[in-house]
Amino acid sequence: xxxxxxxxxxxxxxxxxxxxxxxxxxxxxxxxxxxxxxxxxxxxxxxxxxxxxxxxxxxxxxxxxxxxxxxxxxxxxxxxxxxxxxxxxxxxxxxxxxxxxxxxxxxxxxxxxxxxxxxxxxxxxxxxxxxxxxxxxxxxxxx
Length: 143
Hints:
It contains five helices and no strands. By secondary structure, the protein is an all-alpha fold. The radius of gyration is 28 Å and the shape is rod-shaped.
């Protein structure tokens, strides 16, 4: 959860930093004025990859800043997807691990426990064989 907050904070920081840079480069070049709100609007639109096109940079520095914001937006999108995927994968793995622990209890029978081992496809045959022998010992003692 903290990574989501860090990613969001980095995005907000990048938008404000980009807005400041755009205001610096474009404030004197665009006819009709270009205030900080226009710079932030352009920065946010560029960073989020929306690119409305109502305000565009005219100077080389402004265009380079917009380009950096575009690449930053792509990286932000990828990082956001990775954070969400990692969170979901971690939750799934913990649930799978807990399921095996819950299903293999003294009240379970050996056949149920061995069926649960078949779900551990990431283990090799030797390790599965060792676990089957261990389960058989546990269930013989509890019987």
